[in-house]
Amino acid sequence: MERRRFLQVGTLSALSAMAVTGNPAFAATAGGTKGHTFGFAGDGSQFLLDGRPFQIRSGEMHPARIPVRYWRHRIRMAKAMGMNTIALYVMWNYLEERPGVFDFHTDRRDVAAFVRLCQAEGVWVLLRPGPYVCGEWDLGGIPPYLLRHPDIRLRVKTADDPRYMAAVTRYIEHLAPRIRPLLVAHGGPILMVQIENEYGSYGDDAEYLAELRRLWIDHGVDGPFYTEDGLSQLERNHTNVPGGAIALSGGDASSIAAARAAYPAVPAMAGEVYPGWLTHWGDDTFQGADSDVSTTIRACMEGGLSFNLYMLHGGTSFGFFAGANADDASGHYQPDITSYDYEAPISEQGAATPRYTTYRDLIASYLPEPLPAVPAPIPTIAGTTVEPAPYASVWDNLPDALPADRTVDPRPFEMYGQNSGFILYRRRLEGYSGGTLDIRWVHDYATVFLDDTYAGGFSRPLIPDAVAEARHVTNDNAPLVLPPAAQVGDHPRLDILVEGMGRTNYGHALVDRKGILESVALRDAGALTGDLTGWEVFLLPMDDRFIAALKPGVRTPPRPGIFFRATVHLRSTGDTYLDMSRWTKGVVWVNGHNLGRYWEIGPQRRLYCPAPWLRRGRNEILVFDLHQTETAPITFERTLH
Q1: How many CB atoms lie within 10 A of CB 177?
Q2: Does the keyword Signal feature in the UniProt annotation (predicted)?
Q3: Is 212 helix (H, G, I), strand (E, B) or coil?
Q4: What are phi and psi of 114, to 5 degrees?
Q5: Contact 251, 273 (CB under 8 A)
Q6: Ramachandran region of residue 151, left (φ > 0), alpha (ψ -120 to 50) or beta?
Q7: Residues of the chain where predicted confidence (pLDDT) is lower than 70
Q8: Is-contact 497 395, C-beta < 8 A?
């Protein structure tokens, strides 16, 4: 994210803007003395800012993944690396977690404030509002409440599923008034607005894209627009929009030339140049460490070609918002780690990496003026060790069960109005004689109990054999052999505690519900053999309200499903990482802030805790672990690994 400096050029008249763009529908004319024009040359060869050729040098960062107190620091880091633009996703499901209830203000949700901060720092903006964004974010940014419809279709036009497009319309109705004043034509920094995201990797319905474009225009956001696709998907499915610029995933100078040859009327740019890569739970190591995009950057600088580094700064998928990948049949499920460090030039903690320096020096060598100084590093703290004590049990903090008529059969989270967290399915097994538990299907991880006896678990993601054996967890939803009646009695209570991990964010398996999807059955269980009905179901969203209301107390002997708490007194604050390498699988909160998930299978074993979430004096760390009944140390470290 570099930025040379806004061109200080007088605004063009509407007629002259039309002349330089060759397309009056996509000439952003000045809305007053403060407005600028941004458009395209008549032959599509250039982006034009106030009538002059303009190279977009952009870096991607997402305000939802960055603590608000650090927004300005990260923008300045981008500018100091030579970026004149920042590209950002807007995560719809972070703004509208419940149908019709929008939040544009709390925590990291004030997108307009981030955009205004970009302008204050002299940086332009490429806005990527979806409604689908991918981004290794839960369900690609689409709200999970839509999955309450058994036959829902996503990313389709109104004629194919009016429920989806009605929700999209409501989203645009609420977002557009906040975006319109920030368009370049109205004196803001937003140069272009993206229509959908990589739709060519999903479909080829031009009517769907046209409907989205029309929605934005009808609500006062009239472009310029652009689309983002891989070159081969663009060539095959023609998923650009009329008059809109083209951004290319994995783009470089040669793919820009190919797109220009196919679509000569509009400019093309390298919309996602990957200086790193995403990492899944269970990967051998963090991905993207060997990536080097120096050649791509050099070619773009030499040719005056526009580009966007994805990610320049990845940040963190705090809370339960990390996504997942799966094949198109929703198999081979791979949830993403909490960190979105991405091996990006600016680290998760905001530090300049060696590649930051390399790319900064490279870009600076092509610019006529020196770059701003690199901002001072954010202070870090390390060396503290805490050992949380058992504090509360999930079993003593169950809410009221849902009405029995809604739980005859087990159903997913979404059918009960829950987005994320955990859910408990409970049933008494009268006449139990042993057997095998067969669940269709666990999404995504479950621990199973007969009364207070841990019986094992289910993992949808593939976990190493050694871990599966140690935890008595089956892989890929394979059936689980239960303890014999001699061990647990002939009428034990069956408890299935299910964790929903990230929803699929890419491909055709987007409809990725959480919890138990279809049925629970016993095999080889005598009179109980067959499907089990008549459940008690308890919703455990583990949201702010739930955590704040925890009742302390842990029974003896303890049963897995424990909250551990530690108090640590700090003389000074700084960014830190909580090392969870001695823990098993769970979630961490610091002073009420959800840092995200940890898991012993790695490769991530440390969770980022930003300094603004700490305070001098007393701080509280809360850990919920699915397996451990005994505590373990947590150390403060300076880096992710």
Answers
A1: 13
A2: yes
A3: helix
A4: -65, -45
A5: yes
A6: alpha
A7: 1-34
A8: no
**Under a CB-based contact definition with an 8 Å cutoff, are residues 413 and 458 in contact?**
no
Number of neighbouring beta carbons within 10 Å of residue 135: 27
Distance (Å, whole) CA 379 – CA 375: 12
Label each residue of 541-568 as H, E or C.
CCCHHHHHCCCCECCCCCCCCEEEEEEE
pLDDT of residue 34: 65
- 422-454 tens-digit pLDDT: 999 999 999 999 999 999 999 999 999 999 999
E strand or H helix that includes residue 308: strand 307-309
Q: Cα(35)–Cα(28) distance, rounded to whole angstroms? A: 9
Query: What secondary structure letter does DSSP report for 626?
Result: S
Q: What is the CA radius of gyration of the chain?
A: 26
pLDDT of residue 12: 28
Residue 431 is encoded by which pair of tokens? 């006449």
Q: What's the pLDDT at 521?
A: 98
Amino acid at 280: H
Give CA separation, 480 vs 442, 474, 496, 527, in Å.
12, 6, 12, 18
Cα 39-42-44 angle, rounded to 5 deg: 75
Give the β-pairing of 307-309 and 268-273: parallel
Tokens of 202: 């999903």
Q: Which two tokens stand for residue 307?
A: 């580009």
Which pLDDT belongs to residue 614? 98
DSSP 313-361: B--B--TT-B-EE--TTS-S-EEBPSB--TT-SB-TTSPBPHHHHHHHH
Across the beta sheet with 606-609, the strand order is 385-386, 634-637, 576-579, 606-609
473-475 β-sheet, strand order: 473-475, 453-459, 445-450, 493-500, 421-428, 536-540
pTM above 0.90, yes or no: yes
Going from the C-alpha of 252 to that of each of 54, 194, 442, the distances in angstroms are 18, 19, 41
Q: Label residues 323-348 b or e (16+ Cβ within 10 Å = b).
A: bbbbeeebeebbbbbbbbbbbbbbbb
Output b/e per residue, 450-471; b: 16+ Cβ within 10 A.
beeebbbbbbbbebeeebbeeb
Question: Of the candidates 379, 374, 378, which has an alpha carbon nearest to the alpha carbon of residue 79?
Answer: 374
3-state class (DSSP) for residue 286: coil
Which amino acid would we find at residue 273? V
pLDDT at 357: 98
Total length of the chain = 641
Q: Give me the catalytic one of 272, 343, 414, 499.
A: 272
The C-alpha atoms of residue 409 and residue 416 are separated, in whole angstroms, by 12
- Dig out the tokens for 559 from the structure: 């049963």
For 503-555, how does the pLDDT look when each residue is reduced to its tens digit (9 = 90+)? 999 999 999 999 999 999 999 999 999 999 999 999 999 999 999 999 999 98
Residue with tokens 């081979």: 332
CA dihedral 414, 417, 418, 423 (to 10 degrees): -80
Q: Which of 198, 348, 499, 637 is catalytic?
A: 198
The values of phi and psi at residue 390, to 5°, are: -55, 130
pLDDT (0 to 100) of residue 202? 97
Active site residue 198: yes
Give residue 408's pLDDT.
98
CA distance 427 to 407: 11
